[in-house]
Amino acid sequence: MKSTYKTIPLILSICLFLSCNDERNLSFKQQASYIKNEQADKSMPNRHFGTSKITKPNFDTHLLFGIWADKTDASSCNFEINADHMLYCDYDGNGERLYTINGDSIFLDNPTLIFKGKILSVTKDSLVIHWQNNKTAERLVRWIE
Prior knowledge:
The protein has a domain at 53-142: Lipocalin. Helix content is 19%, strand content 30%. The protein contains 3 helices and 10 strands. A hairpin with a 6-residue loop joins strand 9 (126-131) and strand 10. It starts with a helix and ends with a strand.
């Protein structure tokens, strides 16, 4: 009988120890209650582009194509853009991005989101783009290697 009284606290201690671990064994219904219900941003396209595309541009696209930098004597360029893609210079990884231009708007296909900008002007020597989260427009010059 004495061994039974010693065994019961031991079993209860083991059960208590096992029930206090950090892993949760929740059912799918219980897990779903932990997911935040946030609305999707409907202003963003819901898929990435298959190809680059230009529709009804408000400028001569041949002026846009080329290599662009912050200043003419920059040690490297910011990006190169052509009919097929835009390529970030000095990017760690694959800097190639697809884009869509519609009128004066440019939509750049980044890995996590579609980045938006407005092409304010483009000449043979300069490009001005106002990107979505920047306070001021980015003024670029054609980069000469």
